[in-house]
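In response to reviewer comment 3 from the previous cycle, which asked for concrete evidence that the modeling workflow produces usable outputs, we include below a single protein chain processed end to end. The sequence was submitted unchanged, and the resulting C-alpha cells are shown without manual editing.
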Amino acid sequence: MGDIAPLVRRPVEAVADKNFREIGIRSFGKGVFHKPPTTGLEIGSKRVFAVNPGDLLFNIVFAWEGAVAVAGEAERGMIGSHRFLTCVVDGRQVDAKFLGYWFQRGEGRETLQRASPGGAGRNRTLGVDKLSEIRVPVPPLDEQRRIVARIEALAAKVEEARGLRRELREDTQALPRAILAADKSGRRIRVSEFASLRMPDVRVSPVQEYHFAGVYSFGRGVFRGLRKLGSEFAYERLTRLRSGNFTYPKLMAWEGALGIAPKECDGLVVSTEFPVFEIDEAVMLPEVVDTYFRSPGVWPHLAGRSGGTNVRRRRLNPADFLSLEIPWPSDEVQSAIRSAVNRLSDVAKLQAETAAELDALMPAILDKAFKGEL
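The workflow returned the following C-alpha cells.
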C-alpha cells in the first residue's frame, strides 16, 4: 500500500467563522456520509484534513469491519478528522475503486483486521504503519477496471431492486389511507367513544427483566425495543401491552409516533410516558385507528393539541387525545381497511425476506469478483 497508495495529509485550519462539512464512513462497505455543517469555532482544536475526490478513505476505528470508501465529487471541499485516513492512489498502477472493493470483503478485510490490533469495537484501531505494509493484488489496470465495471453494473441492479421494493412498500401503505379518504359518509366520532385509557398494571421489581416496546416517529408504528432490568430505570409501574392496544409517547405524538401494538409486541411493556388505550372493536376497528393516526396529514393537528412552547417538549396528554374527533367510517369501509392492512402485513413479511436477500447480494458479488468468477 505504501508504494501504490500512500497516506497523504492535507491539514486544514479551522477558521472560527467559516463553515465546514465533515465526512463519515459507514461500516460494511456502505459508503461515505456527510455530517451536518459545523463552524471552525465548533471544531476548535481538533485536527482536520481535506478530502479530495479519488482518495481511498479509511475510518481507523472501524476499518476492521469494512469502513472503507472512495471519495467522489460530492466530497470535494469536505474535511475529515484525524480518524479518517486519506490515501492517494497511483493511477498508473491501480484503480482506487478496485482497492476500495477489495478491502471491503474477504482477504482485503482480513488484512485490515490483522492491522487493527486491540479488543472489540472502538479499541481496534488501524495502525498507519501497518496499513502501509499491507500487500494488495495489482492485476493489469484494464483487468481492475473490468472488475470494477462488472461490480458496479451488478450493484446498480441491486439498487434498482431496492428502489422497486421501496415503491411497492409506499404504494401498499397508501392503500388503507386511500380507502379511508374515499369514505364520503362525513360521520365523525370522539376518540373517547371507542377508546379507554388503561392504567399501569405492572409493579416493577429491580431484579426482574422487562422487554420494552417503542413507537417510531413519522408513522412507522410500534416496535420491539430493549430489555432492561428494573434497577436500570426509575419507573415504579409499567403498562403491559396487549395486541390491538393503541399507544404513543406523550413527547413525540405530534411527530407521528402513534400506533396499534402488533401481535409481535403482545406482552411487552411501556413506561408511564406512553398512554395505552383499549379499543372497542364494536365501534371502531384498531386497524382504522392505526391508519388514521399514522397518516402524515393528521400530525399537524396533534401538534396543536400538544402543550408546551418548546417543540421538543410538546406533550399530548391522554385527556386531549380522547377529546379528538376523527372520521367514523361505515362497517363496510372499516372491514375493507382491515383487509388492506392485513394484506400489507403479508407484503411486509415478504419484503423483510427480500431485504435480507438484497443485503446478502453485494457481499456475494464482491466475493465472486475477487475469486475471478465475474
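Residues 188-328 form a domain with the Adenine-n6-DNA-methyltransferase TaqI; Chain A, domain 2 fold (CATH 3.90.220.20). We consider this sufficient to address the reviewer's concern, and the full set will be provided in the supplementary archive.
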